[in-house]
């Protein structure tokens, strides 16, 4: 897939899956999916993780137990060297020859093997040394969190990304490192290197990407009074799972390993501005759009386990393929139902910015979930909402991941009239804080019925144009437009096949149902 961060950063995500029934490389990485576990093995969780599970009333189950040591020993006896282990998927990854594949499949405890998707590649031009996020801070009502004293304090956030080069010396992040707010870092690309190398070694310009994401979650510059992110007082665990500017197989298991590591530490909120779709030179190795279904890719399945069984809120960038006519839709794991997939909007009209990926019409649930402004791609809109979530978790630590996700959706400006372009729209801090306090929200949405081919509405706005979504049904957009307002009136022209229309007035939303 082409995951593009506009202007200053250009990302190319090439994470395809092998199409079933196609010839596979003779020597590549595979997931080896196993049967059963040792039920006497203790869960691989820290005391903090166990305490948080108990607080959320989430039971400990087999997905918390490690892969069977006996199975690992038998694999090693056959000459297989496991690379990664996944307790959630009950699987190990390994590089296998054709003959080794036959041997592995013959083992009685092996359920199946599945090719691992080729690696993620990030290419970049110059990094965003000081991303101007002030517009999005205004859009999501960040001052409301500031006035409430919410800065992500006591909330632990995991960031899974590419490199974090220079994070400890970046002006926007000095306050985080000076208070030792980054507790641990792990480099799954070069696990044997000193941990400081993750912050000090520059292999490609993509190694700035995780630094920019972290700044969009927690960055601030007090000397210039600029706030880049909301979670300025949060605690962080960082994991590098991707190596930029290099194409090789096996990084999907890095992603799963990082997720399970963070779960073992008790992390409840994770940002991952990564996506998997298409783009390999061999088209047979690409994912197909129909596979963005929430369960085909193993990372989507792992993400769903994290949401359902581990109480983790995963915030994922939706993808930047909106302008790619051969793809257009979100990437995985943004397709998993349990993750919070974030799209990107324009700054003024709050409709979908051109590059932002749309939700597949085949999904029975809405994707993306919400959106916010980002000039540089959904990689930088997702961390804004991660900071938003951290503020809510600080406001009420007893909230579950699904409750936080629901509050963010309900706080968004289009709710309940979401669509597959921007989800429920832009989250609003004032509404979210009211929901946390179980307060009722002011009525900002209404529905009207109409017939014929056009309709003139009286609208309360001083803006010369407003965003209109023409839809084939309740959620799927035919097209969006910037419609002119003249003397307080807006004329809608019904398109062929249009069943519903959403008129976005920012502070009010009108849903027109055509009869």
Automatic annotation (TrEMBL):
<feature type="active site" description="Charge relay system">
    <location>
        <position position="161"/>
    </location>
</feature>
<keyword id="KW-0645">Protease</keyword>
<dbReference type="InterPro" id="IPR000209">
    <property type="entry name" value="Peptidase_S8/S53_dom"/>
</dbReference>
<feature type="active site" description="Charge relay system">
    <location>
        <position position="379"/>
    </location>
</feature>
<protein>
    <submittedName>
        <fullName>Peptidase S8</fullName>
    </submittedName>
</protein>
<feature type="active site" description="Charge relay system">
    <location>
        <position position="209"/>
    </location>
</feature>
<dbReference type="Pfam" id="PF00082">
    <property type="entry name" value="Peptidase_S8"/>
</dbReference>
<keyword id="KW-0720">Serine protease</keyword>
<feature type="signal peptide">
    <location>
        <begin position="1"/>
        <end position="21"/>
    </location>
</feature>
<dbReference type="InterPro" id="IPR023828">
    <property type="entry name" value="Peptidase_S8_Ser-AS"/>
</dbReference>
<comment type="similarity">
    <text>Belongs to the peptidase S8 family.</text>
</comment>
<keyword id="KW-0732">Signal</keyword>
<keyword id="KW-0378">Hydrolase</keyword>
<dbReference type="InterPro" id="IPR050131">
    <property type="entry name" value="Peptidase_S8_subtilisin-like"/>
</dbReference>
<dbReference type="InterPro" id="IPR015500">
    <property type="entry name" value="Peptidase_S8_subtilisin-rel"/>
</dbReference>
<feature type="domain" description="Peptidase S8/S53">
    <location>
        <begin position="155"/>
        <end position="425"/>
    </location>
</feature>
<dbReference type="GO" id="GO:0006508">
    <property type="term" value="P:proteolysis"/>
</dbReference>
<dbReference type="GO" id="GO:0004252">
    <property type="term" value="F:serine-type endopeptidase activity"/>
</dbReference>
<dbReference type="InterPro" id="IPR036852">
    <property type="entry name" value="Peptidase_S8/S53_dom_sf"/>
</dbReference>
């Amino acid at each position: 897939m082409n995951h593009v961060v506009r202007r200053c950063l250009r990302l190319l995500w090439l994470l395809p899956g092998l199409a079933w029934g196609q010839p596979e490389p003779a020597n590549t990485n595979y997931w080896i999916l196993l049967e059963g576990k040792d039920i006497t093995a203790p869960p691989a969780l820290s005391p903090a993780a166990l305490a948080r599970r108990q607080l959320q009333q989430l039971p400990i189950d087999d997905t918390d137990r490690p892969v069977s040591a006996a199975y690992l020993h038998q694999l090693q006896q056959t000459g297989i060297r496991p690379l990664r282990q996944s307790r959630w998927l009950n699987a190990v990854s390994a590089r296998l020859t054709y003959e080794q594949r036959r041997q592995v499949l013959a083992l009685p405890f092996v359920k199946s093997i599945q090719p691992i998707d080729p690696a993620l590649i990030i290419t970049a031009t110059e990094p965003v040394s000081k991303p101007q996020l002030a517009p999005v801070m205004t859009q999501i009502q960040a001052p409301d969190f500031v006035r409430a004293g919410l800065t992500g304090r006591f909330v632990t956030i995991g960031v899974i990304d590419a490199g974090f080069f220079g994070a400890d010396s970046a002006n926007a992040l000095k306050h985080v490192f000076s208070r030792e707010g980054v507790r641990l870092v792990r480099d799954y690309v070069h696990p044997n290197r000193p941990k400081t190398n993750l912050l000090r070694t520059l292999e490609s310009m993509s190694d700035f990407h995780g630094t920019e994401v972290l700044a969009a979650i927690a960055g601030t510059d007090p000397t210039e009074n600029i706030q880049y992110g909301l979670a300025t007082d949060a605690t962080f665990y960082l994991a590098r799972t991707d190596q930029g500017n290099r194409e090789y197989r096996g990084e999907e298991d890095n992603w799963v390993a990082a997720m399970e590591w963070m779960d073992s530490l008790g992390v409840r909120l994770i940002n991952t501005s990564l996506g998997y779709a298409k783009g390999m030179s061999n088209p047979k190795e690409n994912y197909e759009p129909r596979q963005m279904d929430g369960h085909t890719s193993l990372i989507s399945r792992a993400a769903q386990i994290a949401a359902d069984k581990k109480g983790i809120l995963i915030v994922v960038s939706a993808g930047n393929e909106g302008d790619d006519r051969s793809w257009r839709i979100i990437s995985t794991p943004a397709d998993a139902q349990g993750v919070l997939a974030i799209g990107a909007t324009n700054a003024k009209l709050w409709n979908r910015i051109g590059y932002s990926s749309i939700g597949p019409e085949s999904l029975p649930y809405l994707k993306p979930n919400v959106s916010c402004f980002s000039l540089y791609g959904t990689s930088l809109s997702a961390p804004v909402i991660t900071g938003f979530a951290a503020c809510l978790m600080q406001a009420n630590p007893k909230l579950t991941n699904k409750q936080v996700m629901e509050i963010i959706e309900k706080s968004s400006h289009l709710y309940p009239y979401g669509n597959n372009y921007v989800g429920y729209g832009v989250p609003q801090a004032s509404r979210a804080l009211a929901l946390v306090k179980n307060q009722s929200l002011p009525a900002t949405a209404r529905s009207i019925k109409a017939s014929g081919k056009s309709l003139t509405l009286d609208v309360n706005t001083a803006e010369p144009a407003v965003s209109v979504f023409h839809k084939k049904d309740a959620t799927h957009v035919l097209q969006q437009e910037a419609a002119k307002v003249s003397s307080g009136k807006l004329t809608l022209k019904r398109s062929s096949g249009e069943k519903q229309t959403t008129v976005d007035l920012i502070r009010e939303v009108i849903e027109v149902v055509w009869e």
